[in-house]
Write a structure and sequence with these properties.
- The structure is a single chain.
- By secondary structure, this protein is an alpha/beta fold.
- It contains 24 helices and 16 strands.
- The chain has a ten-stranded mixed sheet. A four-stranded antiparallel sheet has the order 2-3-5-4, covered by helices on one side. Strands 15-16 form a two-stranded antiparallel sheet.
- A hairpin with a 4-residue loop joins strand 6 and strand 7.
- It is elongated and about 120 Å long.
Length: 745
């Protein structure tokens, strides 16, 4: 009996476990049927539209021949011409055009176009115009045969409408009511088009009003509050790490101490680019039924595993939807997080992500990719930043979170940003969005850029801009010079701040705005698109400069945006990670790479194409964001607008000065370094004893070769008694040798 009971119990459990998969199959079948049915209906509607448009084209040709060449269409054509002349008068020439417009509308119109309302509105407009033509005729002559047969005026249709109006309200009253009918017909037929045009005019006028061309002063910003104009009633904006606030005004005391008040920067001939040059996206339709089915599948899967939990809320974002799951009292959270593979199988999506808890809530988050991804363009969110002022010049738009709210970063508070991810995950596009936001908000006297692009092709659009301190840098040697210049500039600025007895560059610029003899200090942003190439060639010098800048440069207004596609410890070193707390992780290959970037797993589950995890440094968990997209044509329009103003640029960095220590260091390296590099790359591991044996050198020299290979990024760090790991592949070695020859030559 006990065995039978256990068998029944296990059988019941097995039935419960197979239940969600049965439901899933049924749901898939129903889903497939639902998808097939709309396609069949759409094809039928399209077929009917094409047939009707062909009929209207035939009527257009026939009525045109009836009016122009009636002899060619026989007795019926002559009868049609006579009937149209009597009934419509001059309006007979509009009939062929109406048939043609109907054909075009059926062929090119939207599926949801309200054809019946359009036809009704056009009919009201047509009849009111005919009646207006007949209103000027005497009521006694409106129905005379001689006048109707001549085909002038509004014909019989116009007379039927105009005669009672003229008799009752007179000619003036008739014109008033007929004009009102004409306008009503316009509204009936083209209400949607008129409202869209009106909204676009208002939006364009609003954008021009709040355009960055004439920035507001801090006092005006303080009066308006932190919320940008036009955001009331819309989704909120998420500022990270926090919303930038204007400086507190300090009143002058009795002792004659001047108040430090940051005013608007000095205005010149330069005009900020207008944001309407960016494209906008239209709202995409999203089926809530899909998420309802997923919610049921998640709950059934949890129930089949005897987990007391339910989905309490669903939030739909541009890329993924977040399902908030609450567990029952006494239920372990670990039981839900361990079911990641089962839930992924039930949903038919391998890229789900489960984390606990959701910040600020007693719930578990399950992120599931959407079937249709919404494109987030930079033009959709850049206006939500608000007008530029001295305290928010470096605010940039990143994208939208899972609730569809715009995510805004304040680079001045971060104060540096690290981006890492696989090739094609969206790093360069994200950098272009950040740089373009800065160009939209800052004049050349407010912002200076140093752009380092070892790929040669990512920053070509920005060549010749007045914001650049030097040309776009592509080689490691001038890149190291530029970073050394930034370190020297940082030290010079600190000395200047000490002399003025202020602690921040904003306070210094506030004094400069009151004293015309002091030159204000612009903010400097250093953008590096690929750190791995620089670390492979000039590791010691680049890492030293970056570590000094990231540790001290915040107070003097120097900020860094660094990107790399090699999220390994030899590129993102501990020194760099400790000084750059704000990080963005794009799609990576493994959770080890995710832990190198963020310190936690999750980036390996991202979907690519701008899908990112953003850690501004003050959140308990990274934020899932769909990055904004800016197209190449938009960048060309932006940079072309800036170049047309022909602002002269003075290069502050001399890249042709004396040979840097990078080249000197290459000259002093061991002659056997190249041969040692080939040996360790071919072997796949590196050790001093191996080089000592194969190169026939002493242990001390072999040890120095290993150290030099580690500094160049060819081998990894020391790992005790184990051999060192080789960090580059054999096919990458020839490219590395070419770079060394260019530097040494």
């Amino acid at each position: 009996m006990a065995k039978q009971g256990n068998a029944k119990k296990s059988g019941g459990s097995a039935n419960r476990k197979t239940e969600p998969y049965k439901n899933k199959n049924i749901g898939d079948h129903n889903k497939a049927t639902e998808h097939e049915k709309p396609e069949t209906i759409d094809a039928s509607i399209k077929r009917k539209r094409v047939v009707a448009s062909i009929l209207f084209i035939a009527l257009f040709v026939f009525t045109t021949l009836c009016l122009v060449y009636p002899a060619g269409v026989g007795l019926i054509g002559k009868g049609v011409r006579t009937a149209l002349s009597w009934s419509l008068g001059i309006g007979r020439f509009v009939i062929p055009l109406l048939f043609l417009l109907c054909a075009i509308g059926l062929l090119l119109g939207k599926p949801d176009m309200r054809i019946s309302l359009i036809l009704l509105g056009v009919l009201v407009i047509f009849l009111s115009v005919l009646a207006i033509f007949q209103t000027g005729v005497s009521p006694a002559d409106m129905f005379k045969t001689s006048r109707l047969s001549s085909g002038s005026g509004g014909g019989l249709a116009g007379s039927v409408i105009a005669w009672p109006l003229v008799k009752t309200v007179g000619r003036v009253g008739s014109y008033i009511f007929l004009t009102a009918a004409f306008l009503a017909g316009l509204v009936i037929a083209f209400e949607e088009q008129i409202s869209q045009a009106y909204r676009s005019i208002l939006r364009r006028r609003h954008e021009i009003t709040v355009s960055p061309v004439s920035p507001l002063t801090d006092a005006q910003i303080a009066q308006k509050g932190d919320e940008p104009k036009g955001t009331k009633g819309k989704e909120s904006v998420k500022y990270l790490p926090s919303a930038p606030s204007p400086p507190v005004e300090i009143a002058e005391d009795k002792g004659g101490q001047f108040a430090i008040k940051v005013t608007a920067p000095r205005s010149g001939k330069y005009k900020l680019p207008p944001t309407p040059i960016l494209n906008r996206t239209k709202d995409k339709a999203f089926s809530l039924k899909t998420n309802d089915e997923r919610k049921i599948a998640i709950e059934q899967t949890l129930k089949s595993m005897d987990v007391d939990a339910r989905v309490v809320n669903v939030r739909k974002g541009p890329t993924v939807s977040l399902f908030e799951v609450e567990v029952g009292t006494g239920e372990k959270v670990r039981r839900v997080t361990e079911l990641e593979q089962d839930i992924a199988y039930a949903l038919g999506s391998p890229d789900i992500r489960i984390y606990s808890p959701i910040p600020g809530k007693q719930a578990i988050g399950i992120e599931v990719p959407n079937h249709i991804r919404d494109t987030v363009l930079l033009g959709d969110i850049i206006d939500r930043i608000g007008p530029p002022a001295s305290h928010n010049l470096l605010t940039v738009a990143v994208g939208k979170d899972m609730s569809g709210e715009p995510v805004i970063l304040d680079l001045a508070q971060l104060p540096h940003l690290l981006l890492a991810g696989s090739t094609g995950a969206g790093k360069s596009c994200c950098i272009n969005c950040l740089v373009c936001c800065l160009l939209f908000r800052c004049r050349p006297d407010q912002l200076k850029l140093i752009m380092i692009d070892p790929k040669f092709v990512e920053f070509t659009w920005y060549e010749g801009l007045p914001h650049l301190l030097c040309d776009v840098i592509n080689e490691p040697e001038p890149a190291s010079k530029a970073l050394l210049w930034a370190v020297e500039e940082m030290d010079r600025r600190y000395q200047e701040l000490q002399r003025r007895k202020v602690v921040h560059v904003d306070d210094y610029n506030a004094i400069a705005s009151r004293d015309g003899s002091i030159e204000p200090m612009p903010k400097i942003v250093i953008v590096i698109d690929e750190l791995g190439d620089l670390m492979a060639v000039a590791r010691r010098e680049v890492e030293t400069s970056i570590s000094r800048l990231t540790a001290k440069a915040r107070a003097v207004g120097i900020h860094m945006i660094i990107a790399t596609q090699r999220p390994s410890v030899d590129v993102i070193t501990g020194v760099i990670k400790n000084n750059i707390t704000a990080r963005i992780a794009f799609q990576v290959a493994s959770n080890a790479d995710s832990r190198t970037i963020l310190g936690t797993k999750g980036a390996e589950k991202l979907l690519g194409k701008g899908d990112m995890l953003l850690d501004p440094g003050n959140l308990p968990q990274p934020l899932r964001v769909q990055g904004a997209l800016i197209q190449q044509k938009e960048i060309e329009l932006l940079t072309g607008y800036i170049r047309e103003q022909k602002i002269t640029r003075e290069d502050a960095i001399d890249l042709n000065r004396d040979i840097s220590s990078v080249k000197d260091e290459m000259m002093l390296r061991d002659p056997l370094l190249s041969e040692a590099a080939r040996i360790v790359v071919s072997a796949g591991e590196a050790s001093a004893s191996m080089l000592q044996t194969l190169l026939h050198v002493g242990y001390a020299r072999a040890r120095r070769l290993i150290v030099e290979l580690s500094e160049l990024g060819i081998v990894g760090p020391h790992e005790g008694s184990k051999s060192r790991k080789v960090l580059i592949k054999p096919e990458e070695l020839d490219e590395w040798f070419e770079r060394q020859k260019r530097i040494a030559g």
